[in-house]
Specification:
Bound molecules: xanthosine-5'-monophosphate, magnesium ion
Helix content: 10-25%
Shape: globular
Number of strands: 9
Distance between the termini: 35 Å
Largest sheet: 6 strands, mixed
Radius of gyration: 16 Å
Strand order of the largest sheet: 4-3-2-5-6-7
Strand content: 25-35%
Length: about 180
């Protein structure tokens, strides 16, 4: 077998390569570790499925004690058009009340998903509630949501890899790449 990594033909271009992502994730982990240094009871809540790789890499770089948990959400609509309706498919197992909660999300697009999560988690009265988002498409924002830790801003293109998918494909590519428009439009 060849070690050469093939770029699938549906990919337009690589936006963020493995090294660039790894360096940024290390920075984010250092910031999070510094900020939560003297608080115990930190819970990372990853949003499935998109955040699973980011979450794994971020968590393993943290120098503060933490738990990991996950939630799964679904938008009622499919594809890239979002009307803001979000549904909880799987809740956390951890009781968030009184704990320091950090939501770990793959990408911020319209903002509806993160806004929904912040509202349902706030109602559980955590000791603190912050957000860590790998990617943001600022041009697409419909509703402003607070992001405490941000990896990268990207243009309004559909991206895949490093956890992100198109119809559940391309999730485990090691880089983040733009799909060819004809694939998703
Ligand atoms: P909202 O619009 O609620 O969307 O901020 C956040 C969710 O939309 C998905 N999303 C993407 N997923 N490539 C993906 O794989 C993308 O370019 C993309 N843009 C939005 C994602 O599930 C995120 O949680
Ligand atoms: Mg997704």
């Amino acid at each position: 077998m060849s070690n050469e990594r093939l770029i699938p033909e549906e990919i337009e271009r690589v936006l963020l390569d493995e090294e660039t992502i790894a360096a940024r994730v290390r920075d984010l982990a250092a910031q999070v570790s510094a900020d939560y240094g003297d608080s115990d009871d930190l819970v990372l809540v990853g949003v499935l499925k998109g955040a699973f790789i980011f979450m794994a890499d971020l968590a393993r770089q943290l120098s503060v004690p933490h738990r990991v948990d996950f939630i799964a959400l679904s938008s009622y609509n499919k594809g890239s058009i979002s009307d803001g309706a979000v549904r909880l498919i799987m809740d956390t197992r951890t009781n968030l009340t009184g704990r320091h909660v950090l939501i770990v999300e793959d990408i911020l697009d319209t903002g509806y998903t993160l806004d929904y999560l912040l509202r349902i988690f706030r109602a559980r009265e955590p000791a603190s509630l912050r957000t860590c988002v790998l990617l943001s498409k600022p041009e697409r924002r419909k509703i402003e949501v607070p992001v405490d830790y941000l990896g990268f801003e990207i243009p309004d293109v559909w991206v895949v890899g490093y956890g992100l998918d198109y119809a559940d494909r391309f999730r485990t590519l090691p880089y983040i790449a733009a799909l060819k428009r004809e694939v998703y439009v």
